[in-house]
């Protein structure tokens, strides 16, 4: 019987699933709940979403927008997305032909990869990287090729990459580059010069750029978000992914989108339709209200996050972490060398179980766990009292 069971279980599983683990970020949230820890692991706000958009969602349910929207997104939401791309980035978008609304940017990313990749294609990814991109590549039959982002050498410095290393990652098998700016987990905001360099490689090697711009409005220190699709020559070879989660503090609503040239959009829409049919219809209506919030909303959002960043970093520094100051997004990568632990996983376990704070072990952002063994990531998208409680607990850490 035991033999039959093990033979059957081997037979039943896809080989693909062997090539990645469960999400460490989501696991750390479960660990935080189990141990009653302050959750600075998974990046979701613990404060209220804007009242206007909650009302719009309630109104949509009450007025019976409770059946499927058009599979690639409600027309009024697609129009609002197109308006925003024009407003913020000067990009003309045809909402009938170029927009696919998905269940979060997570689904937009995997639908895009499934729509464009063939077995053997290579995808260039900067590392440390948001952990979904690895499994996304595996599930779509592609092979990720990693290019290192190196931490700043001094206070106030930036994460950088080596131009030659990036160039050598491109070859005739390269289908796409995934670019996440503002970046999770590093907080790097790619500059125009860096984007132009990437653009030149995309043109030279005939490669697609798939950009995750979910943190586009969360910027500090005067940095500017530049959409890859706004660069000359990139409109026809860029898929821009974004969503409501981070900009409007509604990570549980699962409304995201991909904006792409028509042919690529058609392919994304097919995959998306058979994967999920569509994103929640009433929440797409609320999305229209969200995307129509006035410009002051975005300035306040970024300012609120700057205050939170400047709240958490001194507490982490005082507790013994070396912080790499983010220029965008709402995470801080830290170096944990001062604590003398075996590795990041042992440290994160100790922190969640004994100190009562959950973080994400650095290794989950690297292909080779060794590369992240001295780093952990904290999310600061939390109320001041949550950050205070975390600071109180972290001050008990011994160096
Ligand atoms: N982007 C978030 C993070 O990095 C999590 C998103 C998710 O769990 N789907 O923590």
In short:
By secondary structure, the protein is an alpha/beta fold. It has helices at 2-12, 24-35, 51-62, 75-89, 104-116, 133-139, 163-169, 192-204, 262-276, 281-291, 295-319, 344-355, 384-394, and strands spanning 38-39, 99-102, 122-127, 143-148, 174-180, 208-212, 238-243, 256-259, 322-324, 331-335, 357-358, 360-361, 375-379.
Provide structural commentary.
By secondary structure, the chain is an alpha/beta fold. It folds into two domains: 13-42 and 296-398, Aspartate Aminotransferase, domain 1; 67-291, 3-Layer(aba) Sandwich (Aspartate Aminotransferase, domain 2), CATH 3.40.640. 41% of the residues lie in helices and 14% in strands. It has helices at residues 2-12, 24-35, 51-62, 75-89, 104-116, 133-139, 163-169, 192-204, 262-276, 281-291, 295-319, 344-355, 384-394; strands at 38-39, 99-102, 122-127, 143-148, 174-180, 208-212, 238-243, 256-259, 322-324, 331-335, 357-358, 360-361, 375-379. α3 (51-62) runs antiparallel to α10 and α11 runs parallel beside α13 (384-394). The N and C termini lie far apart (52 Å). It binds glutamine (GLN). The site of glutamine has 8 residues, from α2.
Keywords for this entry:
single chain; 399 residues; alpha/beta; Aspartate Aminotransferase, domain 1; Aspartate Aminotransferase, domain 2; 2 domains; four-stranded antiparallel sheet; 13 helices; globular
């Amino acid at each position: 019987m035991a033999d039959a069971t093990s033979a059957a279980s081997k037979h039943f599983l896809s080989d693909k699933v062997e090539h990645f683990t469960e999400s460490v970020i989501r696991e750390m949230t479960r660990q935080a709940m189990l141990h009653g820890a302050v959750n600075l692991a998974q990046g979701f706000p613990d404060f209220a979403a804007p009242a206007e958009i909650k009302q719009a969602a309630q109104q949509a349910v009450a007025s019976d927008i409770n059946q499927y929207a058009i599979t690639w997104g409600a027309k009024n939401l697609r129009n609002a997305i197109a308006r925003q791309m024009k407003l913020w980035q000067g990009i003309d978008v045809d909402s009938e032909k170029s927009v696919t609304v998905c269940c979060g940017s997570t689904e937009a990313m995997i639908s895009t990869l499934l729509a464009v990749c063939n077995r053997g294609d290579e995808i260039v990814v900067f590392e440390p990287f948001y952990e979904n991109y690895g499994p996304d590549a595996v599930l779509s039959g592609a092979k990720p090729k990693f290019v290192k982002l190196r931490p700043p050498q001094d206070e106030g410095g930036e994460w950088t990459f080596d131009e030659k290393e990036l160039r050598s990652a491109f070859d005739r098998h390269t289908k796409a580059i995934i670019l996440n700016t503002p970046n999770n987990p590093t907080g790097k905001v790619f500059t125009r010069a860096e984007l132009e360099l990437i653009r030149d490689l995309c043109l030279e090697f005939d490669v697609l750029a798939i950009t995750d711009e979910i943190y586009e409005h969360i910027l500090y220190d005067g940095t500017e978000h530049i959409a890859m699709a706004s660069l000359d020559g990139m409109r026809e070879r860029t898929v821009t992914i974004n969503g409501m989660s981070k900009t409007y503090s509604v990570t549980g609503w699962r409304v995201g989108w991909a904006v792409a040239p028509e042919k690529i959009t058609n392919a994304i829409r097919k995959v998306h339709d058979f994967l999920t049919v569509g994103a929640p219809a009433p929440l797409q209506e609320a999305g229209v209200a969200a995307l129509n919030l006035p410009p002051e909303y975005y300035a306040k959002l970024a300012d609120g996050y700057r205050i939170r960043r400047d709240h958490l970093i001194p507490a982490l520094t005082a507790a013994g972490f070396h912080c790499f100051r983010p220029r965008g997004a709402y995470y801080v990568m830290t170096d944990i060398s001062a604590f003398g632990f075996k590795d990041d996983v042992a440290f994160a376990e100790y922190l969640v179980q004994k100190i009562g704070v959950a973080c994400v072990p650095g290794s989950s952002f690297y292909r080779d766990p060794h590369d992240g063994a001295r780093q952990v990531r904290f999310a600061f998208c939390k109320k001041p009292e949550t950050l205070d409680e975390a600071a109180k607990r972290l001050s008990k850490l011994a160096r």
